[in-house]
Amino acid sequence: MEASKVRDELKAYIRTNLLHDPAYPLADDEPLITAGLMDSFSLAQIAVFIETSFGVNLPDNDLTVPNMDTLELIVARVMAGPSGA
Amino acid sequence: MTVRTLVEPVAARARRDPDRHVLTFIDEGGQREHFNAAQLDRGAAAFAAALAAVGVAPGDLVIVVLRHSPVLLSAFWGALYRGAVPSIFPYLTEKLDPQIYRERIGTLVRHSGARAVITFPEFRGPIEALLHGASCRVLTADDLPLDAARTWEAAPLSTTAESLAFLQHSSGTTGLQKGVALSHRAVLRQIEAYGEAIGLRDDDVVVSWLPLYHDMGLIAGCVMPIVAGIPLVLMSPFHWVRTPGILLSAIHEHRGTLCWLPNFAYNHCALSIRKKDMEGVDLGRLRAVINCSEPVRHESHRRFLDRFTPYGLREEALATCYALAENTFAATQSPIGRPPRVDWVSRRTLRETQRAVPCEASTTEAIAMVSCGIPIPGTQIDIAGPGGARLPERCEGEILLRSDCLLAEYYRRPDATAEALRDGWYHTGDMGYLADGELYVSGRRKDLIIVAGKNLYPQDLEAIADGIPGLRPGRSVAFGVPDENLGTEAIVMVCELEAGEHDRDAIARDLRKRVVQQTEVTLKDVRLVEERWVVKTSSGKTARADNRAKYLEGRVG
């Protein structure tokens, strides 16, 4: 699993399904939740997408706003795998 | 002995059956903490003694600002033990601006005349600085005089059934909300009547993630089970929202039988619980999952059933309730043991003639109205037309109610109390109709937007836009649009730009950020429009319904 592929798929999912704007110029380090772009509910939806698309189950404790507020944080967390090692 | 106050059952249980299990708290790490009757009683006594030590007298208002935790319950019951009147304030989250949040607490304290704020140690300094000059003390769990607690006698003699028990905040986002003041008698009566309506049993177990600053969480998910001696399993709303599977695994693990959810939660569970989180989960013991606090959607129930029937969820466990803080909590309840009735009516006839005319479910204009059930014992519902005349069945009008568990008053707001309570009837402002004795709610208070169970007034959002450079003051409008995926409403704002060149993206980002920091809600869409787009009434007020229709017709841009 390549980071660039994970990043592209996540970005497309977030823009289309969570921001409802496939053309939104989302930067990798742009805050998603604390800037009011998407809701906390979206964290759970992203976790389902990550399970379905990449087969990775992130531990519940990692699904927090500080851990998941930007695309680059989410990608890094997926690449670290289920244990976060 | 007739129970007069909310304190007596809790204190009596601690003496009679000290080891009785009352609460399991699931923390954010998934750890379980268990509390018995004696521990809750001692925790409450410690807070009561601490409140007395700083001069809080029976009848004084106490604001509780604590995150979802066992300490929150001890503090709440501690204020009751003191005979004081607690009111739970929402806790600070990552999204809110801490400065604005604390200023709201300050405003609330000054307007309500609160005598104490109970909070966490890290909040003490900032809140004390903010309350400088007010005769209000700040208490934390570090201040508890454990020696005094050992000898504390619960239930001061001056507390009677008619004394105020606590305040609930009904709706709105500002610190100037109307506090719904409830007497001990009203709350005890609600618990008795609602317990009868749902057939509350000794072997029930309540599982809840609901916040305690809202009537559904406070009454159904805290006060009722604790007073009735029913085990309660609690988890934090923030924890649940991110990982909704914890609710269902807790229902399985703790043999939960009762759960209350706002409508969006049915969608959130159906949509956002991972397969892994459902492994081994059995929902067969659930006897009622009760939908209340935002409009009930048939589609949400269907999605919930589709997803969880394979895990043992039974269709007859679906239930509904119409609740409002002013009636303590529930006003109606669908009979337990059968799914709520669904009334297919013509959308056009309902909108144009205010009559609910049944039609075939298969026709395009049919809408599914889900019954909220029948009035609970002691509560009476009427439907009134614009002049106050009572309407027959299947006619839509304002929902009025009369009961033995109504609010005593809006706290220190005789004007608001007189407006809402007329001739003994509480005027809800909600619209609905009765059919075969069951209540169908068709619309909520004018302009009110309900997002995921949270009530918002568009005026508060529009005021935020007024402060943004580049936007024309008084020329922004906020309204709700259906969010079918989440089973709730989403908020759209349309704002007129000042003349000249603007960085539109920067303005939209600024608005989104300020809205989330002040209200915690995320705007689904921000549309920046040219001058004269926003429709006003002839008297210069913002015509939200007209602007909403204009937006939905796609005439924006």
Written overview of the protein:
The complex is a heterodimer of chains A (85) and B (557). Chain A is mainly alpha-helical and 85 residues long. Helix content of chain A is 51%, strand content 0%. Chain A has 4 helices and no strands. In chain A, helix 1 (3-18) crosses helix 2 and helix 1 crosses helix 4. The two termini of chain A are 16 Å apart. Chain B has a 5-stranded mixed sheet. In chain B, strands 18, 19, 21, 22 and 23 form a 5-stranded antiparallel sheet that branches. In chain B, strands 2-1-10-9 form a 4-stranded mixed sheet, with helices on both faces. The radius of gyration of chain B is 24 Å and the shape is globular. Chain B contains 17 helices and 28 strands. Chain B folds into 3 domains: 7-15 and 32-178, ANL, N-terminal domain (Rossmann fold), CATH 3.40.50; 215-445, ANL, N-terminal domain (Rossmann fold), CATH 3.40.50; 449-552, GMP Synthetase, Chain A, domain 3 (2-Layer Sandwich), CATH 3.30.300.30. The chains are: A mainly alpha (85), B alpha/beta (557). Chains A and B meet through helix 2 of A and helix 9, helix 11, helix 16 and strand 28 of B.
